[in-house]
Amino acid sequence: MRTRKISALTMTAVALGLALTACNNDGADNASSSGSSSSSDASASKPDASKPDATKDKASGTPAKSGTKCTDQLDYAGDSRSNAEINSIGADTGTCPPVKKSQSDTKCTDQLNYAGDPRSNAEINSIGADTGTCPPVQKSEKPTGTPKDPNKKCTDQVNYAGDTRSNAEINSIGEDTGTCPPVKQK
What we know:
- With 186 residues, this protein is mainly alpha-helical.
- It is 46% helix and 4% strand.
- The strands form two sheets. Strands 1-2 form a two-stranded antiparallel sheet.
- Helix 1 crosses helix 2 and helix 3 (52-60) packs across helix 5 (83-93).
- Mean pLDDT is 73; it is low at 24-59.
């Protein structure tokens, strides 16, 4: 008796699943059984919790053209998702999802602080785009600032009036680099 109840529940679940797959995107039921249409209509109106991107992408994506895959409509080069996933979102929502850029699409100069690097931002970003890895920060071969007198603090050697940094920070830079940094104005 218990086996019959379990198999009856299993059969009901399978029938419900088949009825749901027979629905169009507009929620209309194509199944011939009228008994399953009321339960499938109720289930079809609920958003699918297993697809969290589906409702989010519908609002912000591009309307899908009928009979055309999203990957044939938009350039998804660099998107980390598979073509099948992208096209599935488009088929489920009727909207092609926006292209997701990966971290590597962010310019190197937006990821790391290249202040003091003698190369231009364009050169640094070009290296990152070509290699897929941001280059290490290069220090300028010629130090900027005034050579530090070993017997004086930088703040006693250069007039830092109006500099936004504290005297301790300025003197620390001088001790670490051997060069008093240029005056930094507001």
